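User: Second chain of the day. Same drill as before.
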Amino acid sequence: MASLTPRFASRPTRRATAPQQRGGFTLLEVILAIGILAAAVAVVGEVTRLSYVNAELAAMEGDALIVAESVMAQIVAGLLDPAELPPTAWDEGDPSADAMWQYSVAVTALEIDELLAVTVRVEEARPADKEPIAVSLTRWLLDPDQVPETPDGEAAL
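Assistant: Same format as last time:
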C-alpha cells in the first residue's frame, strides 16, 4: 500500500529569506553619475570661459580709460585746444602701428561763463558689426577765451 505522506515531505522546507546584498553600483547608477559629472564639468567650463572674456573686456576698458586720461591731460596742459575734435586715431607714438583706439573731443559751454565741459570719448576701432568698447571722460575746465590776462600778457589761471 502506498504511503499517505507526500514524497517530498521528508525534505526540510525553506524559509523565505531576504536576498543577499551585493556590493557595488548598478549600471544605471554609474551612467547617472557620469551624466551628472559631465554636466558639472560643462557648467564649470562655461563659467571659466565667461570669466576670461569678462577679464579681457575689463582690461580693454582700462586701456581705453588710460587713453582718455592721456588726451584729457594734453588738453589741460594746453597741448591740445579745448575744441570739438572729430574721431581721431590714437597712434601711441608709433604712426606705423594700426590704431586700436580712436578718440573724439566734445566741448559744451556751461551756465557759468568761464567754464567749459570737455568730454573725451575713446572707442575701439572695430568693424561696424561688433559693438566697440567705449569710455567717456568729462572734466570742467576754464574757458581760455574768458580767462582775464595779467599785466605781463599771460592768462591768469
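Residues 77 and 152 are 20 Å apart (CA to CA).

User: Great, on to the next one.
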